[in-house]
């Protein structure tokens, strides 16, 4: 009972000192007062949050003492133990709070759980270990470290290997050994040749097309010649009875119109024949003088290229 009264008196000291600093409390002082109110009401989780934030803003010894006391109440023995020890390092031995911190640390020490994380012998040298999302220094491996009771996450990662995660539970007054290693090797990607896309762009068969076009031209020329011959013969007879389209009788006029119609048909057929023969000749010429055209489009990791 006497030691608890001493703690309460010691806790009250920073309250008086903080209130004397200024008429308007600073944020650290406001948070400290909120923490004290929560602790007095038995709401230690809320009190710990307020004390921790107040300590971050202003590292006052009284705040540190209150935070350590709060952490012990919520079962964070390692955190409280460390803060009591830290308080001894920042206070002179003549300060009554120094003795309180020493007694509390000595009483709490045996209750602190410890954890020893060791990499397995076959673990790669570049493996990295994380405890509770914080990377561990290599010097802290295989060394007992104080932790708060409860679950803790351990993650091991290494290049080329699967990650391995586990959850361990630290128990009050016990030392927990943990031997771990990264997971198995990741499967290597099979090296495959770069995909290649080849397109043959040979023109449509030129020789058959050339022969077809040539044959069509010959036929058209034949048709044109036939109608041309008829037009000449009909014109010869109509010229004897017609002048400038004026004919002496109906028979002569019919002969004249037929000659004109046949002449137009001959012109069209001869024109088509000439064009068809020209196309056939071109196709035949290109099929003989040009090799089969091939275009290759190659796509690889180095880029894209082609050949024609």
Can you describe this structure?
There is one protein chain. By secondary structure, the protein is an alpha+beta fold. The protein has 3 domains: 2-110, Alpha Horseshoe (Serine Threonine Protein Phosphatase 5, Tetratricopeptide repeat); 114-180, Immunoglobulin-like; 197-300. Helices cover 53% and strands 18% of the residues. The chain has 8 helices and 12 strands. It has helices at 2-19, 27-40, 44-57, 61-73, 77-90, 96-108, 206-241, 250-289; strands spanning 114-119, 128-131, 134-135, 145-146, 150-157, 164-170, 175-180, 196-199, 242-243, 246-247, 295-300, 303-307. The strands form 4 sheets. Strands 3-2-5-6 form a 4-stranded antiparallel beta sheet, with no helix packed on it. A 3-stranded mixed beta sheet has the order 4-1-7, with no helix packed on it. Strands 8-11-12 form a 3-stranded antiparallel beta sheet, with no helix packed on it. A hairpin with a 2-residue loop joins β2 (128-131) and β3. It is rod-shaped. The two termini are 98 Å apart. The relative contact order is 0.08. Mean pLDDT is 78; it is low at 1-20, 197-205 and 290-297.
Tags for this model:
Immunoglobulin-like, 3 domains, rod-shaped, 12 strands, 8 helices, Serine Threonine Protein Phosphatase 5, Tetratricopeptide repeat, alpha+beta
Question: Which helices and strands appear, and what pairs or packs with what?
Answer:
Blueprint: H1 2-19, H2 27-40, H3 44-57, H4 61-73, H5 77-90, H6 96-108, E1 114-119, E2 128-131, E3 134-135, E4 145-146, E5 150-157, E6 164-170, E7 175-180, E8 196-199, H7 206-241, E9 242-243, E10 246-247, H8 250-289, E11 295-300, E12 303-307
Parallel strand pairs: 1-7
Antiparallel strand pairs: 1-4, 2-3, 2-5, 5-6, 8-11, 9-10, 11-12
